Amino acid sequence: MAAALPPPDFTAARAALAAGDLNGCAGIAAAAVQSHPHLAEGHFLFAMALGEGGRIAAALQAIDRATDLAADNPEYQAQRARLLTLARREAEARAAADRAAASAGAADARTLDTIGCVYARLGDHAAALPLFEAAVAMAPDNAEYRFNLAAAYGFFDRKADAEAQYEAILRRDPAHGRAHFGLAGLRRQTPAANHVERLERALDAARDPLDRLRIHYAAAKEYQDIGEHDAAFRHLDTGNRAHKARTGFSIDADARNAFAIRTAFDRSGYFTGASKVEDAPIFVTGLPRTGTTLVDRILSSHPEIASAGELQAMPLAIKRLAKTPSRLVLDMETILAAAGLSPDAVGRDYIDRARQHEGARHGRFVDKLPLNFLYIGYIARALPNARIVCLRRNPMDSIWSNFKNLFATTSAYYGYSYDLVDCARFYLLFDQLIAYWRAKLPGRVLEFSYEGLIDDQEGQTRRLLDHCGLQWNPACLDFHANAAPVATPSAAQVRRPLYRDGIGQWRAYERHLAPARDFLIGQGIAID
After folding, report:
1. Paired sense of beta strands 387-392 and 305-307, if any
2. Which CATH number do you get for residue 258?
3. Least confident of 10-14, 97-101, 245-249
4. What digits encode the pLDDT tens for the residues 292-351?
5. CB 258 within 8 A of CB 432
6. Assigned domain for 294 exists
7. What is the 3-state secondary structure of 84-151?
8. If I label 455, which of 38, 240, 356, 432 is the partner at 20 to 30 A Cα–Cα?
9. How far is CA 422 from CA 32, 400, 414, 515, 518, in A?
């Protein structure tokens, strides 16, 4: 009779995973799965090693086996939910997160934080907040948990609570770039109360390039607040030059995509066919930082409308149905492959994806992903009842606002924002594409002026509601009283009544912005 195999050393596997030794973890876990297939932990750790290595589909297969064997383990369910969000299977992620939350009383801090992050990615910040609070209470020395809690407090305008969390992080790690950046954005700084001296010291101490980038942005924001414009631009220029050099970004791919979209929709048979999708979402598009969050807030203050935030649902619907193998969501290959897609199928895929996010689960909703302006042709044909709004703002204010805002540092969408002339070139691509949609889809897109809204709030709000098929409601004028969370860089601004501070802001940096100004003028674009 063969001797029983000794139990696997799962402690060693977890230690290897924590140390980033994915091969070591995977080796122990794979052996455990072979020798003890009935033990859920082996399948779970194998899934974690696969997932950390980017093999999401294989990781999901392994973690499904773990949850089959231990269905009520909150850690397994939480990590399964996380993997499902990475696979863009949001409805299943929500169900797994709900199951993990139901067992959260037995969870550790990491699991609580993981469940909270899944809810946050699904737009349910109210569900995420208590989980983040519990994780911090359980593990107060963990900076990642504190950062997630601070960000969540910021979404709900709980500034003092957010500041307390950011300061707790900085006491332990004075060069924590994300904490400095989050703290700077919570409120307008003053000459008497700011953090610029501390930020300069933190910059000297920071070694990680992304920490340095975030500290540069935090310093720029605070110097701008206190009116020291040359110092603000110096920090932005230094940080952005270094980041662009690291990424090697070229705007040529964006130019090729914009040209390919126009060329494709000029072909008579491109992306044609009827769509029977009856849903009528409202798309708020435009360049980032041009008023999209403000318009989203106005619309979602209407009792018939909810905000779903910035959904990736349309880009992902096109990408999934086009079945192109590239890692980029939008590229020449995907644009060409979309030619034979059914608008009805794209519309249904979009609605299925969108409804998995908190704000879009019921009724009409706003999808405010700014860069959906690239997808207006697809939206118009796939969702015949959709209403589309495109924000327009002064070109130079648009460029300055993009240059001074730190977007997702790993996203190919925003690579242009780290260089002034790239910002100007991207504005030109945007302007040309909107002119194309205007001619191609007359009446479908409301071009909505940020400055016009500031000058005539009620008149322009009525125009906006009329385009969206909504009855007048005075609550839309009091958008700043809307208590719903805001998860964009414009959170502080949209909690104030309309103000004129953002109009002509670029003038304070006119000397520095000369390359962008000269490019636009050379392309025939009026800057005033």
Report:
1. unpaired
2. 3.40.50.300
3. 10-14
4. 999 999 999 999 999 999 999 999 999 999 999 998 999 999 999 999 999 999 999 999
5. yes
6. yes
7. HHHCCCHHHHHHHHHHHHHCHHHCCHHHHHHHHHHHHHCCCHHHHHHHHHHHHHHCCCCHHHHHHHHH
8. 432
9. 52, 12, 10, 10, 13
DSSP tally for the chain: helices H, then strands E: 25, 5
Residue type, 34: Q
Alpha helix ranges (H) inside 326-394: 332-337, 343-354, 376-382
Which two structure tokens, joined as six digits, stand for 60? 């999901």
Q: What is the mean pLDDT of residues 21-32?
A: 90
Most confident region among 31-45, 92-106, 222-236 by mean pLDDT: 222-236
Question: Which amino acid, 129?
Answer: L
Q: Are 148 and 154 in contact (CB under 8 A)?
A: no
Q: Establish if 33 belongs to a structural domain.
A: no
Structure-token pair, residue 492 = 């502080």
Residue 193 forms beta bridges with which residues? 190
Cβ–Cβ < 8 Å for 426, 416: yes
pTM as predicted = 0.90
Rounded Cα–Cα distance for residues 287 and 285 (Å): 7
Cβ–Cβ < 8 Å for 413, 371: yes
- Other beta carbons within 10 Å of 54: 10
| Cα-trace Rg, the chain | 24
* Domain that residue 324 falls in: 251-523
Residue 134, domain member (yes or no): no
* Alpha-carbon gap, residue 75 to 112, rounded angstroms: 8
Number of structural domains the chain divides into: 1
Q: What is the pLDDT of residue 2?
A: 46
Rounded distance, CA 173 to CA 202, Å? 10
User: Residue 21 domain-assigned?
Assistant: no
Cβ atoms within 10 A of the Cβ of 3, count?
5
DSSP track, 190-230: BTTB--HHHHHHHHHH--SHHHHHHHHHHHHHHHHHTT-HH
Contact 116, 148 (CB under 8 A): yes
